[in-house]
Amino acid sequence: KSMSPSPRIFLGCQISFYHSIFVSFYNRFSWKGGHLYIFSPPFYYNTKNGTVKWHSIRRQKREWIKFAAACREGEDNSKRNPIAKIHSDCAANQQVTYRISGVGIDQPPYGIFVINQKTGEINITSIVDREVTPFFIIYCRALNSLGQDLERPLELRVRVLDINDNPPVFSMSTFVGQIEENSNANTLVMILNATDADEPNNLNSKIAFKIIRQEPSDSPMFIINRNTGEIRTMNNFLDREQYSQYSLAVRGSDRDGGADGMSAECECNIRILDVNDNIPYMDHIEENALHSSLLQIRVIDLDEEYSANWVAVIFFISGNEGGWFDIEMNERTNVGILKVIKVWYNYPKYFVFLVFFKIKG
Ligand SMILES: [Ca+2]
Ligand SMILES: [Ca+2]
Ligand SMILES: [Ca+2]
Ligand SMILES: [Ca+2]
């Protein structure tokens, strides 16, 4: 237990000519750890040697009061009582009543701090939650028997130390993203978002992201930035014609992914968008028994069915100079029917039409 004078804080009165409230404390932990801060605008605050000074013309009258404090959320701090003691020099020649007010005293959460009106000792009475109240400001007053202020009100600021009592929380249980097939490696797909209610800029709220599962699992296709939650492509091999959808399980762990952290998981569904990277081809040509139809032309395209990348167009290159034929495409089946639209009566018994056509899709 360190009682060295280095973390001592002392306050001197600047305003009052006659009296001053002096407060000092010995922090049981290192002052640099900042377990408890006390300051107020009129005080001169020196972080270098942990001294707070309230310049006073009557500095020679200052009085030192022991102040032991550490306020950690989620645990019983009462064994350190009194956590503070305030004192006015006026007590030397008259009766002084000490009063405190503020959040945690006469404002919710009520009654966490209480004061002995005669001695000025301030006690903590219950367990505190940093996520509800990250710090308390105890407004202290010293009153005479008529209820008049003998001193300028003093602010004691009590910081509540964080413990890691909150896991990360993803903003959604399932995130949805999409990315074009064949995209370059390192293309941004989506950004995951998670928060942690513990103290900001503290390891307790520092979340590290990690992909823990991918479906289909053949080969890893995505990487995640452990700090930002950005998911990017690992390579340029995404192929919608192979897998049109990926599912990832991502874990977010506080304490920057440390073994002592808490974690949460979310799911990411990534849709692979089609690119027109397949050339259509003719499956087969069938003779058709229908009266006016000659041929059925079935077109195959591996791109996304029914999309513009898939629907084929067949057009004549040559052989239809007389406008005898037409091709009727069925957009649901990608089957084209070559029809005779101009009947030609004087044709020879055997006649071969050479019709060339091109398929687009
Ligand atoms: Ca946490
Ligand atoms: Ca906490
Ligand atoms: Ca295509
Ligand atoms: Ca494609």
UniProtKB/TrEMBL annotation:
GO biological process: one example: homophilic cell adhesion via plasma membrane adhesion molecules
GO molecular function, one term: gamma-catenin binding
Residue span, Cadherin domain: 83-170, 171-282
Annotated membrane topology: Single-pass membrane protein
UniProt xrefs under SUPFAM superfamilies: Cadherin-like (SSF49313)
Signal sequence annotation: none
Database matches in SMART domains: CA (SM00112)
The UniProt record lists the keyword Membrane: yes
Cellular component GO terms, alphabetical: desmosome; plasma membrane
Keyword terms, alphabetized: Calcium, Cell adhesion, Cell junction, Cell membrane, Cleavage on pair of basic residues, Glycoprotein, Membrane, Metal-binding, Repeat, Transmembrane, Transmembrane helix
Subcellular location field: Cell junction, Desmosome; Cell membrane; Membrane
Pfam family of the protein (one): Cadherin
PANTHER family: DESMOGLEIN FAMILY MEMBER (PTHR24025), DESMOGLEIN-1 (PTHR24025:SF9)
The protein's name: Cadherin domain-containing protein
